[in-house]
């Protein structure tokens, strides 16, 4: 039976990770903890591991080398993403400063260690998201990016982790737009693992076609597993199988995260957005699909979501309330008890007002008299000068407002639509 094959393979991979975890280098242990314990809900952990406390990681980094520093970076990002204390951040940054002063040979070793670089970058990103950045933080970002860009990896299969390390710091998209195919099984498994752990950084990545995913799933179940001691590769396989089985389940029983993935993919929908300078047919107006206001976005999203949810999709409606104020959501998926709320950012100052609006929406949408449980925020960035490097901080700030916010999707307007000042009739 297929489920028996899957259960057997998962059990084998878990055993490889458990048996090899204690003897793995500190940076590998940190990566495994970050990847396999990513969910805040212990019941959803892919594997239970003997996780150290934050204080133990801090003490190890005070006196250890870059492996302990990398593990601390993973630890801080895992436990304190967006809510680091200043003294904890200071210890981590001081340890990075000590690492920069190490001999050239040590620097070269770190430059060749993709997993260690990713852990350090993960920690620095956590400090930025907690709004604890300083001039020294930016200096350390340049140092990490320099190690990534000017030194080759010791293991070419881990180069994707190196590129992600730099992307976490500047969002330049070095990984491209496509997750790895199944040609190289270990590379494809690692890509899915990275996507699962750092979804904000990789949300624009396009997954392989269904046939390629089926092929990858088949190979993960049928080909020889990593050898004993190859804990990193075994963990990547575990994550990849977790992603693919969740993908399979979502096909039959969609959830709110499936809606979030559909909405995040709308950025790619703009690739052939129509904006003609001149009409292609005589006597006909040029095709210009202008998105200028919230109702335009709602119409676009209705076209996107309707094929998936049909009669489950409820358009703009007022909710039952008390007094003079009633909540009015943009979309809802009734079967998932999910609201999709659309916001438009036209000026940088609008970002703060969006947060205030969401706080108000939360107070109105989730009263005992209303049937909904969760919400996705869809933000359309219509600014003439977008700031995508700030998107992760915006997402984190909104998601920390309430556990009811499943995801925050931020989309830039199509580049072919003219600037706001140029849209006169």
Write the layout of secondary structure elements.
Blueprint: H1 2-21, H2 26-36, H3 54-63, H4 66-80, H5 86-100, H6 104-111, H7 114-129, H8 135-150, H9 159-170, H10 185-197, H11 210-222, H12 231-252, H13 256-264, H14 266-269, H15 294-309, E1 313-318, E2 328-333, E3 338-345, H16 350-365, E4 374-381, H17 391-399, E5 405-412
Parallel strand pairs: 3-4, 4-5
Antiparallel strand pairs: 1-2, 2-3
Helix pairs in contact: 1-12, 2-4, 2-12, 3-4, 4-5, 4-7, 5-7, 5-8, 7-8, 7-9, 8-9, 10-12
Walkthrough of the structure:
By secondary structure, the protein is α/β, with parallel strands linked by helices. The protein has 2 domains: 2-252, no CATH class; 268-422, Trna Endonuclease, Chain: A, domain 1, CATH 3.40.1350. Helix content is 53%, strand content 8%. The protein has 17 helices and 5 strands. It has a 5-stranded mixed beta sheet, with helices on both faces. The longest helix is centred in the middle third of the chain and has 22 residues, at 231-252. The model has no long low-confidence stretch (mean pLDDT 86).
Tally of individual helices: 17
The computed structural class is: alpha/beta
Q: List low-pLDDT spans.
A: none
Major sheet attributes: 5 strands, mixed
DSSP helix fraction: 40-55%
- Cα-atom radius of gyration: 23 Å
Q: What oligomeric state best describes the polypeptide chains here?
A: single chain
Tell me the strand order in the biggest sheet.
Answer: 1-2-3-4-5
Strand content: 5-15%
Give the number of DSSP strands: 5
Distance between the termini: 64 Å
- CA-based shape: globular
The helix/strand series, from N terminus to C terminus, equals: HHHHHHHHHHHHHHHEEEHEHE
Q: In total, how many domains does the architecture comprise?
A: 2
């Amino acid at each position: 039976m297929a489920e028996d094959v899957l259960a057997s393979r998962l059990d084998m991979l878990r055993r490889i990770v458990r048996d090899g975890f204690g003897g793995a280098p500190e940076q590998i242990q940190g990566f495994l903890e970050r990847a396999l314990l990513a969910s805040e809900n212990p019941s959803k952990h892919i594997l239970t591991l003997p996780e150290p406390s934050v204080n133990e990681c801090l003490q190890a980094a005070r006196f250890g080398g870059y492996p302990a520093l990398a593990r601390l970076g993973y630890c801080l990002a895992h436990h304190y993403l967006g809510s680091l204390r200043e003294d904890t951040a200071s210890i981590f940054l001081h340890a990075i400063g000590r690492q920069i002063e190490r001999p050239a040979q040590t620097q070269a070793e770190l430059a060749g260690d993709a997993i260690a670089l990713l852990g350090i970058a993960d920690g620095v990103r956590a400090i930025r998201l907690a709004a604890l950045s300083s001039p020294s933080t930016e200096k350390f970002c340049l140092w990490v990016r320099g190690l990534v860009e000017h030194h080759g990896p010791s293991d070419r299969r881990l180069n994707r982790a190196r590129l992600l390390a730099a992307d976490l710091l500047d969002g330049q998209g070095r990984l491209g737009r496509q997750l790895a195919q199944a040609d190289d099984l270990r590379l494809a498994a690692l890509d899915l693992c990275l996507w699962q752990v750092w979804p904000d950084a990789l949300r624009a990545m396009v997954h392989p076609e269904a046939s390629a995913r089926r092929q990858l799933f088949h190979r993960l179940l049928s080909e020889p597993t990593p050898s004993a001691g190859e804990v990193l590769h075994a963990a990547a396989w575990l994550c990849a199988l977790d992603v693919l089985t969740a993908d399979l389940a979502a096909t039959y029983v969609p959830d709110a995260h499936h809606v979030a993935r559909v909405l995040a993919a709308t950025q790619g929908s703009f690739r052939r957005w129509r904006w003609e300078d001149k009409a292609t047919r005589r006597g006909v107006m040029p095709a210009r699909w202008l998105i200028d206001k919230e109702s335009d976005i709602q119409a676009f999203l209705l076209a996107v979501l309707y094929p998936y949810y049909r009669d489950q999709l409820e358009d703009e409606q007022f909710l039952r309330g008390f007094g003079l104020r009633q909540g009015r959501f943009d979309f809802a998926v009734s079967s998932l008890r999910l609201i999709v709320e659309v916001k438009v950012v036209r000026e940088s100052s609008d970002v703060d007002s969006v947060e205030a609006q969401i706080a108000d929406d939360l107070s109105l949408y989730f009263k005992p008299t209303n049937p909904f449980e969760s919400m996705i925020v869809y933000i359309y960035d219509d600014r003439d000068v977008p700031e995508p490097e700030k998107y992760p901080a915006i997402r984190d700030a909104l998601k920390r407002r309430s556990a009811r916010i499943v995801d925050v999707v931020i989309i830039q307007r199509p580049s072919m639509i003219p600037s706001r000042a140029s849209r006169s009739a």
